[in-house]
Amino acid sequence: MSSHHLDARGQKCPLPVIALARLAADLPAGSRIEVLADDPAARADIPAWCRLKGHTVSQTDVGEHTAYLVVVGQAPRKSTGGA
Amino acid sequence: MAAVADPDFQRAVLDAAPGPMHPAARETFLAALDAGWADPRRLHSEGRRAAALLDTARSVLAAGLDARPDEVTLHPTGSHALLAGLRGIRQARRRVGATIVTTAVDQALVLREPDVDAVGVDSEGRLDLVALRERLAAPHVALCVLAAANQEIGTRQPIADALAASAAAGVPLLVDLAASWGRSPLPPRPDAYAADASSVGGPPLGVLAVRPGTRVKRQPVSTPERGLEPAPPFVPLALAAAEAWRQQEADREVEDRATSALIDRIRAAAAALPDVQVVGSATDRLPHVATFSVLYVDGETLVHELDRRGFAVASGSACTADTLEPSHVLAAIGAVTHGNVRITLPTSAVAPHRAQDVDRFCTVLPDAVSTVRAQLGTDRL
């Protein structure tokens, strides 16, 4: 499956999530995206967004930033509310 | 914005934490500025009158917490009352240990204390009872501190079960009523309650009620508020708080049903929008609190857009609070933290147009959200 990179270091929330959503929108299920972000809010936000959209995510702290590995899921991308 | 030019336009305060004062409490406050301005410790007539008024206020506030007047101390705010109780009980139990067991969604001021053991919560913010029982059984636990309901997302905690668990472990339980006092039935009486009169449309005033037999480290007897505060409260604030409580208690059941229905409408209006996450329990919650996160917008821009359209709302997103970090509550339940909007409805006495305000809010929300998304270029995501 295809592999993609997104360097969102220096960007404040919600910009990393917006960039990730743009990238993931056109990718088939199973695609892998490596995201780098250093905004503290992204630590909660990227995993929360992935859960909501049915993507899987794992994260590793790398010095000043965090590396996220997102695997695009099969679930419908459009959500209409509900926790 | 057309609404701003409308002569009938009025601001809708959907952030009552704290909100405007109840009109009766305001009247009481103004009258008390003349009658009760003196230091209640003074021996002259004015001082004795202030002391008598303070006794009256204390009796009313104590009854509101199922307590006797001599079990109740008054503090500048609910946060002060909570910390006074937490630190007083912890110090009295220092031979046992210093650990405070709480949850990951309790107030930041609790989580910032040293030696905190925070139990996890589920996606609605409800604490894990099994984990709580385990943590309470650990050695060196000084006390357990739990909010009866979360002030950001509204979810209630199983306080009766937590009280049984803490009693079984021999650990005192301090229940934080910050958002719930007067808005929700009192949970069974724990070792201590901390409350704030601003939750009932009063001025900010902290109330701590400690059950007889619960040990609290206090300063020498001459120190005000039973050794827990450096000064007595300003008596007019205490009287206004007591009046607000009395008014709210008389209206509570009607208010509970009315606010709960309005919150259901706000939750439904938010959930109907694309890419909006409604947060917290839909049913086991405070009647007057709603929170949702709008994906792909920042909380600050959304709060400003709603403000421009006449609505005062709060937000748990980063850059909208007192820190650059997003709400620890949203993070702990795994919710999206950006684009967050938090509604705390005022009482109907404070906001007589509350139902119309909520109607207008639900009508305006879709357009406010698409306006902000269009500005940020995220409307087609």
From TrEMBL, chain A:
Protein origin, superkingdom: Bacteria
Pfam families registered for this protein in UniProt: TusA (PF01206)
Domain UPF0033 stretches: 6-30
Cleaved signal peptide residues: none
Family according to the record: Belongs to the sulfur carrier protein TusA family.
This protein's name: UPF0033 domain-containing protein
Automatic annotation (TrEMBL), chain B:
Alphabetically ordered keywords of this record: Aminotransferase, Iron, Iron-sulfur, Metal-binding, Pyridoxal phosphate, Transferase
One Pfam family this sequence matches: Aminotran_5
Catalyzed reactions: (sulfur carrier)-H + L-cysteine = (sulfur carrier)-SH + L-alanine
Cofactor(s) recorded in Swiss-Prot or TrEMBL: pyridoxal 5'-phosphate
Record-annotated Aminotransferase class V domain positions: 40-186, 239-344
InterPro entries attached to this UniProt entry: Aminotrans_V_dom, Cysteine_dSase, PyrdxlP-dep_Trfase, PyrdxlP-dep_Trfase_major, PyrdxlP-dep_Trfase_small
GO molecular function per UniProt: cysteine desulfurase activity; iron-sulfur cluster binding; metal ion binding; transaminase activity
Family assignment from sequence similarity: Belongs to the class-V pyridoxal-phosphate-dependent aminotransferase family. NifS/IscS subfamily.
Descriptive protein name: Putative aminotransferase
Lineage start: Bacteria, Bacillati, Actinomycetota, Actinomycetes, Micrococcales
